[in-house]
Amino acid sequence: MELKVDSIDFSYDETLVLEDVSFELKAGEILSIIGPNGSGKSTLIKCINRILDPKKGSLIFNGRDLLNLTREDLARHLGYVPQNESRNFPVTVFDAIMMGRKPYISWKPREKDMEIVSEIIEKLQLEDLCLRDVKRLSGGQRQKVLFGRALAQEPDILLLDEPTSDLDLRHQLEVLELIRQETSRGIAAITAIHDLSLASRYSDKFIMLSEGRVYAAGGREILSSENLQEVYGVEVAVLEHRGEKIIVPESPIA
Ligand SMILES: Nc1ncnc2c1ncn2[C@@H]1O[C@H](COP(=O)(O)OP(=O)(O)OP(=O)(O)O)[C@@H](O)[C@H]1O
């Protein structure tokens, strides 16, 4: 698996919100997109998932232009977890996760689809909720269901837009551990994330966006107090705890 994003631009109407964004991703890697509110993280994820079409540049997946893939192909290769999603029709947790199998089902789920969905429900410890309407879940429970639906797609790349924003400490770790487990089995993940300490712990590489441009890209070394101060406009202390970086925001820069 290889994804090459080369020099993409995107604008909503006339306003350019992504400019000249490039990066590469390989099987097994977790890439975190970081940057302040409005810097373009969700827009970039939506461009990769083809919800939005970049105005310029290319997205090459395993040597093929992503623009040439059918919706069904895309859904077999890319599993998207949106920041939030509101549905107007009732659907149970089980059925919501089964929706991830849609690209593989001709008219009704097979035994294998049922098994995959049941395994995911167990992995995410959603057994007690599996017949509950998704609308009657807490924000964090709903976020886990969206993650489960993406896993059910058995994608090559998981695209996760703030997958832990509604989760408590325990569930944040559980979901990030699951992402790591999945990537250790050969898929890749791209995650937009605000928690820089968690990002540091669980990511192999980073792109730091500032006003739609890549301000810095690379490994943990880009999480320096200089870069973070410049991009987020706050004084930041970068501490070490058991070999991991802990990012502590101290005070806004006047
Ligand atoms: N549908 C839209 N129409 C017009 N402008 C939009 C739209 N969606 C986002 N934008 C603008 O595009 C820019 C990038 O937004 P985006 O949601 O990608 O940022 P983000 O980094 O994901 O932010 P956050 O951390 O707040 O989720 C922002 O200036 C935002 O106001």
TrEMBL record:
SMART domains: AAA. Residues 3-236 form the ABC transporter domain. InterPro entries: AAA+_ATPase, ABC_transporter-like_ATP-bd, ABC_transporter-like_CS, Metal_Ion_Import_ABC, P-loop_NTPase. The keyword 4Fe-4S does not apply. CDD domains: ABC_Iron-Siderophores_B12_Hemin. It comes from the Bacteria. Coiled coil: none annotated. The keyword Metal-binding does not apply. Keywords: ATP-binding, Nucleotide-binding, Transport. One of its GO terms (molecular function) is ATP hydrolysis activity. Belongs to the ABC transporter superfamily. This is Iron complex transport system ATP-binding protein. It comes from Halarsenatibacter silvermanii.
